[in-house]
Each structure stands twice: as C-alpha cells, then as structure tokens.
Amino acid sequence: MDQAVSVNADPDMPSDSEGRSSRWRNWTGFWLLGLCNNFAYVVMLSAAHDILKQQGSHNSTSPTPSTVALDVEGGKSRYDCSPVSAAAVLLADILPTLLIKFSAPFFIHKVPYGFRVLVCVATAIASFLVVSFSSTVWISILGVIFASVSAGLGELSFLSLTVFFSRDVLGGWGSGTGGAGVAGALLYSALTQAGLSPRNTLLVMLVVPVAMVISYFFLLVFPPSFPQWKCREVESVRGGDSQSRRPLLDDTEEEEREKGVEEDKVTGPLTCIEKLNIIKGLLRFVVPLGVVYFAEYFINQGLLELLYFPNFYLSHAEQYRWYQTLYQVGVLVSRSSLCCVKFRRIWALSLLQCVNGVLLLLSVYYQFLPSAWLVFVIVLYEGLLGGAAYVNTFYFISKETGDRQREFAMATASVGDSLGIAISGLIAFPVHRYFCSL
C-alpha cells in the first residue's frame, strides 16, 4: 500500500517542512480558487438581468417587467416595487448548487480532483458563453444554471481539498470567496459603465475560469502522493490534534473506539452508518450556519429592495446597489479575519443575524428608519456576521473532525449556507407580494 496522504498534519500552522514558499503558494492558490469559484455565481445575478432586459426589449413591444409599475387590486403600492421579487433570480442561481451539495458528498469521492476542477472550469466557461450569446429567456436561465453547477461543485470540492494541506489555507479560501462578491460586482459595473455591452463584458470575464486552471494546476504545491487523476482510497492517516479535538461522532462510535478500534488505524471508505453519524454530528455547525444565511439573504433579496428613501440623494437603484456592495465588503472583511480572530459560537452569530432580519422587517412595515445611512451600517454589519459564520464553521469542523471523516464532513457541511439561501428565497416571494399590496 502506498504511504498515506498526510491530512492536516498540524492543526493550526503549516508544518516547517513545507517551507515558506510552499505555504505562501498554497494560501494564495486557495485565495484565487475561492475568488474564481464564486465569481460567475455573483456576476450572473447582475449579468443575466441585463441580458434578459435587452432580450425583452428586442423580442417584445410590451414593457419589460422592470419598467411596469406594480398595481395591486387597482391601487398603487406605498412601496416602490418591482412586480417580481429579486428572489426569483436568486432561486435560479442557488437551487442547482443546493441539489449538488445534497447529493455529491455520497459519491463525489469516486471522481478524482483533477476531473472535478475541469468540470468546474468547463461549466463556468459555458455559463459566460451561453448567457452572452443567448437569444431566448430559457437559454439565459440555462447559463445561470451552469454558473450554479460550477460554484456548487467547486465549493464542496475545494473545501474537501483543504484537508490535504495545512489548515491555514481555509483562511485563504474564505477570503477569496469574500473577495469574489466585491470583485464581481465592481468589475461588472465598471466595465458596463465604461461602455462595454453586457455581452462583451461577460466575454472579457472568460479570463476567470482560465485563472482557476492556473491556480489549481500550477500554483498549489500538492503532497507527493496526492491522487490527482485517480480515485482516492481512504487509508490510515495521522491525527495531529487528537487532544484538542472535540468528538464529532456520537457515543456509539466512541464506544467502538474504546473496544479497541482506534481511529488512526481504521482503513477503507466510510460506511453509510458512519456517514450518517458524521451528518448527525455536523448538525450543531450546519444548522446555525443555515440560519445565518437564511436571515441575511431574506434581508438582501426580500427586504432591501423595499427600503427606499425618496428624499435621499441617491436614487432607488443606487441605494439598492450600495446596500449590496456594503454587504459584500462586510463579507470580505470577516472572511479574511480567520488569521486574527476565531469565534466558535456560531449560534450567537445566527441569533444576531436574526435580530437584523427582524429589525429590518419591522422597518419595512413601519418605515421608522430616518435615513439610508442607518441601513448602510446595518447591512455592513450583516455582512460581517455572515462572513464570520462561514469561515469559523469550516475552520472548527476541520479542527474537530477525525482525519478519516474530515474530507466527507467538509463537503457535506457546505449544504448549510445553500439550504438557508434557498429557503429565504422561497419565503421572500410571499413577503414581497404582501408588502407591495399595502
């Protein structure tokens, strides 16, 4: 049997044998992978809207949905509403990701990492090309689906990949995913503001999947025995943090260890019972993460478009754009904070995020906030909470999971944020309709 691949040999810092150059390359590589992986997902929320609007003006003589004033039961809404909630685009961009995250952890280990990355790159390229050259609404939606598949498969694959490197690469990955939101929004807006059409802007962004290929295949320094192009069989691995690890599995598994089955000597793939036990142990991480993302995306996609201040110097569209931008800035800052501060109580972050959701829900109904400046502060704080919940969740899962279970646990836990986003999108529809009917 080949020598086992060392998995997170040191819990907090990379081993000295890696060398400073390798540590820097791996951190930078995962930062770029995080940026590239989420880039198409972020951009499609804006780009698909622009393409669809352009198609609507070309294919129909009737007004496009974005230009129709909402008139409910013969009366004007007191809100400056669009007839369809922003949650509609969100659902098209998140449901394929959610489906992949629910199913893939049970079979994806049979697909080598090299092939997974090539699929992510191919679907990202397809998303930009399909949306760029689409002539119908359904073709554009297909392009958004391609972006969602790329992001979903990439997230669970790259999170699983971190177990083969020192744990500090999680900080690089988290920071890169946070940077994708800011970079995607700013770059798309800048290029279109400069005069490029949405189609040409998306074609320029084909450089992003190319950067993913370079980051993965040429920047990362893989362990010598890493199974790049073949299925990895689970082997004996060394546990470097057994004393500080809190058991993820249940009492039954602990009893089996006491009978002489030591974790570090177990070999072979995980059984279905073991996977179910791991999922059970992950709930204390996944549920708070899902609640955090449910609250923040309910705010972003269900409430922020209704928080319009007519007497403010920014237009409605500009206010909404700054809401989203400041949220992404908060996410970037907190997802980059793992090297400075670690926060294990994810449930506290979820509680604070729910407080934000309730506060903004009441402010939409009673309209008691005096200025958009207060909303700017709240959404920046909202982004800080969401980003902190994400990076700390995966850091402590990596830290407290047994070496043999860690790869599966990291992939499975990624369903938490996507599930919260999907549920928030579904609930945002009736909430949006209710407020616009007032």
UniProtKB/TrEMBL annotation:
InterPro entries cross-referenced by the UniProt entry: Battenin_disease_Cln3, Battenin_disease_Cln3_subgr, MFS_trans_sf
Transmembrane segments: 30-48, 84-101, 113-131, 137-158, 170-190, 202-222, 346-366, 372-396, 408-429
Residues forming coiled coils: none
Region (Disordered): 1-21, 240-262
GO CC list: early endosome; late endosome; lysosomal membrane; membrane raft; neuron projection; trans-Golgi network
GO biological process assignments: amino acid transport; axonogenesis; endocytosis; establishment of localization in cell; lysosome organization; membrane organization; negative regulation of neuron apoptotic process; regulation of intracellular pH
Assigned keywords, A-Z: Endosome, Glycoprotein, Lipoprotein, Lysosome, Membrane, Methylation, Phosphoprotein, Prenylation, Transmembrane, Transmembrane helix, Transport
Bias kind Basic and acidic residues: ranges: 240-249
Subcellular localization(s) per the UniProt record: Late endosome; Lysosome membrane
Membrane topology of this protein: Multi-pass membrane protein
Family label: Belongs to the battenin family.
Designated name of the protein: Battenin
Organism of derivation: Salmo trutta (Brown trout)
